[in-house]
Amino acid sequence: MIYPATEKKKQVIHDIDWEYQIEINKQAELKKKKSSTMPTQPAIPPKFQMKLALIIARTILPLDEEKGRTAIAKEQNIADTSYTLSCDQKSSIIHEIMSNLNNQNATYNNWPVAKKKLILVRKADDSDFEKLIQWTNNPVDDWALTLADFQVWRKSFAERASFLAAVDQKTLQTVGFCAGVKHGRDMGFIGMYYVLGEYRGCGVGNLLWKNVTEYLRGRNLCLASVPSMIAKYRDRNSFKCSENQRIKIACGLPKNFHHIWNMERSFDSTNHQNEDDDRIFKIAKIDEKTINEIFKYDFSVCGVERKAWCRNWLMNHRHGRSLVAVEKSSQRSNENEKKKAGPKIFGFGQIREVGRDVLKIGPLYADDVDVARQLLINLLAQFPDVDRKDVHTSFAANDQKTEKILNELGFEILSDYFEILMYTKRDVNFDRTKMFFFADSEVNFV
């Protein structure tokens, strides 16, 4: 949406012109009382010169932010000199400004510095996140988010996260969003960095960025970047590309799913696997008996504690369905061993609905390909019409074990789209042997 600024600018020009006329009248009165040594064309007062320079810089010139700062720095020099404009020159400039205002293409973007001053950065709420969902629900961005995601993140990370919204105080419209999450002792993840198109180039993104990086100050910053943004992040906080971490995307209809499902052993919706087959694990729903072991398994993969996130994302997400590969009871030697420790975990994963015809899988961690394959097949089976849905997931580039499973199920791997993990101090490490699908890359690094 384009925001017309014509009336606002006209009012500013009217105020300046009115002030100028007052000064002219004052000087005319002085001219009558004094000798004829007054200049034929009265000098424009420095105060007016300052305002006139501002409006010229912000209205006529198509300035970007850097040039705008340079122009404004020169304004004081203009005001401090004895430079004067004739009435004809002044009228010509005002006419040019007014012509520009009457142009149907004149927008708020002609006032980058003024627009930035109207922005308030505050703590984000549900309505702000709903705006972000609307902005990114398009074929170009395609973030595939839901309000339930935000509510789980906010509850899980609590005081260890800063979810910020940029708001135009004139229109009260949300125009930008960014999140910073503290992981472990020294990692800080930046995600969901987005500014509405009409407000880009005005410094709104910088305001959000400065607030988030200040919140994460001193930590090893990490983010997932598309290729077009790598250079920009390198200039900001000296981000470096991870040497061994590029994120690829798989999507589309898993067209071979039902054929593979029908060839598998019989699974029911509760137990998912018979106890008498030759596997040492079964696929089951996550419950209180397995969640504590999942905490440990998750830590073994990512190296940071995410207990609150694991519980809320895997058990309390209202659009999510989660499964765990757990050791069969027949594999436990005796009752005493069962009491000493919780059930052995071989992997876990989640699938969630992010739209009527869109599903998203992540995370999926497993000991090996067989466990990961069984988890993935059973996750897809949570939706009987899955072969008519668009399924999204992300995985590490050059991860042949994961690509093999995706190809078997008939997923399309996007070869021309990828993201790169970037960091400021140390490269990000995690157990790549167990990592098949990334979690929610908006707030997590793996």
TrEMBL record:
Residues 119-268 form the N-acetyltransferase domain. Signal peptide: none annotated. Pfam families: Acetyltransf_1, Acetyltransf_18. It comes from the Eukaryota. GO terms for molecular function: acyltransferase activity, transferring groups other than amino-acyl groups. This is N-acetyltransferase domain-containing protein. It comes from Romanomermis culicivorax (Nematode worm).
